[in-house]
Amino acid sequence: MPCWSATETVAADDPRLTTRLVPGPNAVRVVLDPRRRLTSERHLFNDGQAETLLCCDRARIRPDERGCGQAELIGVPCVSEGLDLDALLSVLAGRGLHRIFIEGGGATVSRFLAAGRLSRLQIAVAPLVIGSGRPGVRLPPTERLADALRPATRLFRMGPDVLYDFDLSADPFAAVPEPSAGAASGPELSRIR
């Protein structure tokens, strides 16, 4: 399963996008950079830890150009919001990459969510008040709460943090009851159906 990241995340964090703290192989790393702003100096383009694909607007790749550091360049058509997601997913599927973990910012995740291309969405909440910053998930406003996205959800405690694991593979607009006051104990606190 490839691990996916976007330009802003790579530019801000210079992440490794490798498997750590658990045994297992590193995933194929897929970086989205529609306007081709990232340079070959980024760690993940040169560490040789995993196959790395840099996906950008195909018009920004010179005919003689093959890579960025050790990363392979993949040209994809662009639409007004960025890379054409259907074309991108088709290219990746052609390489045998059919499941993708998106480790990206709100804009990237929001595009996939709005396009109905996510089967799961995980959001971690920490007990911190940090003020305003970059927005998370961005979707058009919902006029009525009855029309809000209400997927089946599992909650996991991670120390003081809570992870919300939303199952988007089922009907995302199905009404679900609120969790009961006596939630289950252990790592899985409750399951909302």
Highest-level CATH class of the largest domain: Alpha Beta
Assess the beta-strand content as a share of residues. 25-35%
Low-confidence stretches: 171-193
Strand/helix succession = EHEEEEEEHEHEEEE
Question: Share of helix among residues?
Answer: 10-25%
What structural class do you assign from the helix and strand content? Answer: alpha/beta
Whole-Å distance between the termini?
Answer: 27 Å
What would you say the CATH architecture of the largest domain is?
3-Layer(aba) Sandwich
Give the strand order of the largest sheet, numbering strands 1, 2, ... along the chain: 4-5-3-2-1-8
Secondary structure: number of strands: 12
Please count the helical segments. 3
What characterizes the major β-sheet? 6 strands, mixed
CATH H level, superfamily name of the largest domain: Dihydrofolate Reductase, subunit A
Radius of gyration: 19 Å
> On the 0-100 scale, what is the average pLDDT?
82
Q: What is the molecular shape?
A: globular
CATH topology of the largest domain: Dihydrofolate Reductase, subunit A
Q: Provide the number of structural domains.
A: 2
